[in-house]
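Researcher: Please predict.
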Amino acid sequence: MVNASHHDLEPAVAEIPKDLLYTEDHEYLKPAGATDTFYIGITDYAQGELGDVVFVELPKVGATFKKHDVFGTVEAVKAVSELFSPVSGTVTAVNDKIEKNPALVNTSPYGDGWMIQVKMTSPAEKAQLHVAIRLGVVVGQPQPAQPRATRVELGLIALPGEGHRLAGPRG
């Protein structure tokens, strides 16, 4: 018989840094110095859902993408998933470290596991991304108490064991 502590039975909580911006597809945008330059990677939640990452295919420096364009793929033991650009822009750097060590996506998704660096061409698109508190609602993270109407207005509902789905305001 396995003796599991109460802590072992609790679901893992994904790390969601408060200073980044996020998509509903679980890509993040992290400032990279210049006002219009950002690192893009996948969230801790996404890497956890994928499992052990074994290969990442990324574009070359100079490639351009519009918001929601596929910029690469990530292959894990459980699945292969497309990577979507959170914003329009031009790739200014590619993380060569994850080509040699794709597990960095699992061990350091917000650090050494970033995927590409992009110079944005449409800065207004940043306003359409989620801040950490809103992403937490999507992935079912515990959140500070909020009026129910605020959560419904976001159009996002997270149900335990069901992932997330879009919903409109109740009427």
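Model: The chain has a mean pLDDT of 76.
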